[in-house]
Protein 1
Amino acid sequence: MLAGIILLSGTAVILSRNPVHSVLWLILAFFNAAGLFLMLGAEFLAMILVIVYVGAVAVLFLFVVMMLDIDFAKLREGFVSYLPFGLILAGVLAAELIVAAMAAVVVGSPGEPVAPVIAAAADVSNTEALGALIYTKYAYVFQASGMVLLTAMIGAIVLTHRQRSGVKRQNIGQQVARRPEDAVIITKPGVGQGVEL
Amino acid sequence: MQPIAESIGIAAPELVLATGAMVLLMLGVFRGNRSLHGLTYGGVIIYAIAGFALLGDAQSELAFDGLYIADDFSAYLKVLIFAAAAICSIIALPYLVRARSDKFEYPVLIMLGALGMSMMVSANDLLSLYIGLELQSLAAYVLAAFHRNEASSSEAGLKYFVLGALASGILLYGVSLVYGFTGTTDFRLLQVAVTETPAVGTVIGLVFILAGLAFKVSAVPFHMWTPDVYQGAPTPVAAFFASAPKAAAMGLLVRVCMDAFGGMMSEWQQIIAFMAIASMVLGAVGAIGQRSIKRLLAYSSINNIGFALIGLAAASELGISGVLFYMAIYLPMTIGAFLVVLSLRGADGRPLDTMNSLKGLSKTRPGLAIALLIFMFSLAGIPPLFGFWPKFAVFNAAIDAEMYVLAVIGVVTSVVGAFYYLRIIKLAYFDEPEGTVLPQESRVNGALLAGIAVFCSPLGLFLMGPITVAAARAARAMLTF
Amino acid sequence: MVEAFQNSFLGPYVGYVAAYVILILAIVLPLLIGVAYAVYADRKIWAAAQMRRGPNVVGPWGLLQSFADGLKVFLKETIIPAGANKGVFLLAPIIMFTVALLGWAVIPFSAEMVLADINVGILYIFAVSSLGVYGIIMSGWASNSKYPFLGGLRSAAQMVSYEVSIGFIIITVVLWASSFNLNDIVLSQKGTILGIINMHMFNPLLFPMFIMFFISALAETNRPPFDLPEAEAELVAGYQTEYSSMAFALFWLGEYAAILLMCALMSVLFLGGWLPPFDWAPLYVIPGAIWLILKICFLFFLFAWVFATVPRFRYDQLMRLGWKVFLPLSLFWVVVVSGYLMFFTDKFA
């Protein structure tokens, strides 16, 4: 059922006219994917999926999509002219898959996995099991993923950060460090005399 | 479980690069953009250190529980990658300063890209393959859009990103299929699992993986991004794209085909042969009508990848050493050609990119014209020049493997290709100058240009012995382990 | 209790559902009444801070004020603006309200009194509390009006920013407890300080995290001084501007339920949850739920106190605090805490 909802909402993502609705459908799809993880007994992954994708990524996505001003009538203009080509391509791919599936049915053997899938130990929660694997066997890829994220971060900063000139910035340290003696002069001017600043 | 310390020793070059990139980044953050020059040369030193870390015992070693492999093959390609990355970060300096994009992140990004590439050639598992590839690609996307104030550069970055993400997706899909049908991602185990009559899922997975990798080497039919990205991206970045990532992705392709899927040779051989033929033909024909030098060089790189793929299609030790030899010669040639483009500046100091700006170059800039002559003849594969020998090597391998059609098509397309290389020579030597071309502004770039030109000229033949020996050793290491 | 129902005449399936429905109602109904009194308490505390009397007309000392208000909004007409995106407009308050209630499923009221004692309880609460932003951002967008839209955007940015530091703070506590399970986290605080105090709050390494968590919780629930999404001086009423009657009431209820949830979470993480404050046998006579409720009340009082005394932050200052102060500090603290646990205790041995 969850997989079915994923498929339905996935279709709705591309079919809905309003991009914001598309994002909302996408969020529904994420939720159901998390549900699938839960049913597989991978509760840690399910929660992380909700926290990261639904809680942060999709919010930012929604944020951006809401601010975009897209004319969808215009986007659709090219649709009809590309339709035949797209249909042909889809047909070819579908045919390929069907042929492959037929062959699989005929040949039959799906290939024996060489490495048996490691069954999780019953007394270890899957959070622990995941950690034990990531930090030992897959430490290399884990660290390398860190480098990938660092690169992405540098990239985002390079491409968007601008140094504007002529902006008055608030320097909180300076504000806090300012003492009354620097800012206030107490004088007692006589009658008829002005105050010299 | 292999001890981490041992693995770290084996993966020292990557470690040097990763630490180096972070050190450069920190320095850059605190010193600001004026530290660009310092950081660039610091980066060169780091590449040199990483290169030294490559030396040492020459046996093939696995690290990190089989995720990583260090052998002669990876060492050979890493030398090429580090050298290309170092050169590409140096040659960019005057260009970046002039274009006011002199941000300190440039050498850092190049270094992260180089790190990704060296992880690619050392990958011994589909997981590390993917991560390396992604690291390299992410750095490349950002570099393509580095000139963010120019529409063409942003466009190049976006195009590259969208298509690249699609290619990564296809690759991942392939990886998951292969994992699903064989139960492993380790190349060693895949070698055992993959046999002459593989499961259908494995075949589809292999096709998807090859498609993803073909995108990275810009082999036809996954080449569409190449001309647009090369033209839009800043010239030194285009030089980088045409050199180091090609070597890395080629190495990866060789390892995946020969090592992991060695059992399915008959399946992938057809695919590679088709890609080789299509790339050679399209690269040669597509280049003919181009007006932009960078687009032309893009088609030239597609063409050259086609030649290199012949070696892989031969699937023999001779073929693999041919591929490696090809990469070693192709890299300097293409960097040199881009360096010539980089040195072309019009009267207003802006970079020139049209074919017409080459007119009469022999009169305005005789030195540059000679370098251009050498590179073009070399790319065309005219015998006394260095560019001839790698082509000879791959054709030789194809004939040795009795793939005569492939060899014949290769020879024919290289004749067709010679046409547009010669057209450039004609423009430079036999036409009257139009407008002026400013002299070289950076001595370093001039010296590098001269050095690469000498390498590609017949004088470079002195180096042929050592390179072929190294390539042969690398190919043997790859096949025997 | 679930087994008892399953073994009764209802049969295993119906009994299972019935048992859980009753358990859920047992949490939700007191919670809603609690919310009504939280609103009342809030108003009384502000009034006290401003030397006013606050609500005092409906019922003795005004105790029924919230119910009168509830009845009032219930009877009013629901107005849907002509330009609004109807489906999303109506969905938004429902999401806001539901999500605020969802988190309570895993809060332990005592060692056994917990609806769903799951392994990743803390992650579940974190996930659910991060969903609250959808109610706000959807309402802001669907209202098709500029003030709600601005309010929605502000809120989205603000909540995402502070979730990051909340995540790191939670990690420090999780490291200490070596578990994601809320009951384990509560039990790990038993006698943690000098063998007698049952609170992480008085742990010198975790006290700064408690302060930061408190401030982040204010931001996460859009409470003053971080109530920029509904800053009345600039945005009328922010994302709720176009809402009326029951939809408006759902926002109101959802907001207070979320605040109480945050207070409950804070009690569980830092104040020892259902444990009494001191590890002294006679105190365990009082049921755990009472201790938890007392702690929630105390934290809620702090929330109201802050509301009454602190001026609203400017938006850039809010972002600065979140990204430039809290994020690096909490990240650094994760390193400090894990370093301490690694080198000075045998937790990771």
Note: The first helix of chain A runs from residue 2 to 15.
Protein 2
Amino acid sequence: MSGVTFQWDRGLLVGNLGGMNIVVLIKQVPDTWSERRLADSDHTLDRASADVVLDEINERAVEEALKIKEAGGGEVTVVTMGPARATEAIRKALSMGADSAVHLTDEGLHGSCAVQTATALAKVIGTVGAVDLIIAGNEATDGTMGAIPAMVADVLGLPELTHARKVTVEAGTVTVERETDDGVTVLQADLPAVVSVNEKINEPRYPSFKGIMAAKKKPVRTLSLVDAGLAGSDVGLAAATSTVIESAPRPPRSAGQVVTDDGDGAAQLVEYLIAQKLI
Amino acid sequence: MAEILVLVEHSGGEVKKITSELLTAAARLGEPAAVVVGTPGTAGKLSDRLAAYGAAKVYVAESDQVNQFLTEPSVGVLAELVGSVQPAAVLIAASPDGKEIAGKLAVRTGSGLLSDAVDLAEDGTATHSVFGGSYLAKSKATTPVAVITIRAGAIEPVCSPGAAVEQSIEVPVVRAGTAAKIVERRSVEGGDRPELTEASVVVSGGRGVGSADNFAIVEKLADSLGAAVGASRAAVDSGFYPHQFQVGQTGKTVAPQLYVALGISGAIQHRAGMQTSKTIIAVNKDPEAPIFEIADFGVVGDLFTIAPQLTEAVAKRKG
Ligand SMILES: Cc1cc2nc3c(=O)[nH]c(=O)nc-3n(C[C@H](O)[C@H](O)[C@H](O)COP(=O)(O)OP(=O)(O)OC[C@H]3O[C@@H](n4cnc5c(N)ncnc54)[C@H](O)[C@@H]3O)c2cc1C
Ligand SMILES: Nc1ncnc2c1ncn2[C@@H]1O[C@H](COP(=O)(O)O)[C@@H](O)[C@H]1O
């Protein structure tokens, strides 16, 4: 049976005594089910008017971190940069089972560009200590940049393994199956590293009642810019490397013709397509 | 005139369509300069196409290392070029790799990043279609160099001959530990259908299609129309069709001339990926399905009846 024991123990060989120290980057976003708006005044995301949720892809990122922790021990810290309200997203992650949170929140962050966001997140990650693995979503549903994980990795000088549909951590190495249009690419790097997950990675657990109660007592460290070692000129709209100068809602599409098929539905559709010169 | 760098997307010795779109956009801002990052011998096969779409210069960065790492060689080459030629902008495809390369390049050069532009004006203002096409926003970089990713299919490529003068440059050696190694590549066979984000017609199936086998009905209609096949997330989650064909908020964004939705309810997250299509056709047996709110022509009916009839009619018209 020694082989089995070896399999079991393999996870524990990874980090130091405490197992893996994992940071998960989470973001609170307007619910995709609600109407999403840009503010008229400065064209930034109107976070106040929308229902906000922990982005679904970040639930999957948290889930993956918890799985790795459950296999080999360790510590899961969620990190977010966002308004005070983002505590709700933090609570969700903690009730799923993350151990603690760091929340960078400051008026001065408003209107930060992607480069500033990556720089700031890297600073906050730096306050967590020696981190083995950083897990993020592949793309946020609000900004759909699909770039922050790679950018954070670049600021930290770490390898990034993005769009993972499968993550394996073994003996100080992380291997992922990266899935894009080009197919599947297997990537490998030594820890520490940054991983981003796609929506095929797992099904996130629902917080249990016990989890929700426990989350209330878990430590949440709130950092201001100064606390994180950032200057006012490092972040915010005034110093952003890019700005939105104009925005307007598109006129909504209106419904066209709807016919009920009584035997000639397809024929009517064909007529329409011919009239529109589509076939 | 300032140079505008264009990162060339290529595979199997061919230039991808998005590259001609990027070159066309680049010509609006300045002098297009194509950047080819590949294994030795790559650029030679590409230069005719690059010349045809207006590349004044072609920077050739070839090395065997390019195959070992995903984005790092391109980022390294572009960062060097940003330093040495001081372009006004760097244009990159808004693909998963392109977005990553652009983000890292923006960090490394302290440049403004404009993501997923659907249009680009002469003064460098980018237009973005946000929240699944429900908003249009314009943005600009405040830095000397702008790094801009451009959505496939958004810009009409224009043939306009360029000199395509080649200049070789080094691929910086990737520093150990800073990039993940490629251990294995399992590419998907492209098949005969057009690429989803490039196709002028897309036929998508949803949960209503019922099974993976039944997706043959969707494929047959797609093939008669020369279309790409798409799927809703519910269809993907049910295992009817592979993930890379998902259309929507967390899948592909498409804007074809014609989008046909079969057995798709039209949830807001699905619409986010297709509502800017020119013409939308929906077939759904539920008259209350929200997809009808945005369809130009809808048929309340059974897709298993309508789709085969349509396939046949289209085939007949083709003769
Ligand atoms: C964060 C997030 C991201 C998401 N991203 C995406 C995304 O990228 N893409 C996406 O599609 N969804 C996405 N969704 C899921 C979305 O909310 C819907 O669940 C999904 O689009 C439903 O797919 P569907 O229309 O195929 O299934 P259903 O909603 O179940 O609709 C099936 C339809 O088929 C019809 N039907 C059944 N049988 C027949 C028949 N024989 N003939 C004709 N019609 C028939 C039914 O009337 C019904 O309207 C996302 C959700 C969230 C929360
Ligand atoms: N403000 C933020 N705070 C924490 N994590 C973030 C933030 N913005 C982006 N991320 C992470 O980066 C991922 C991809 O986001 P993006 O590149 O913006 O599409 C998200 O799923 C998060 O994991």
Note: Chain B has a mean pLDDT of 96.
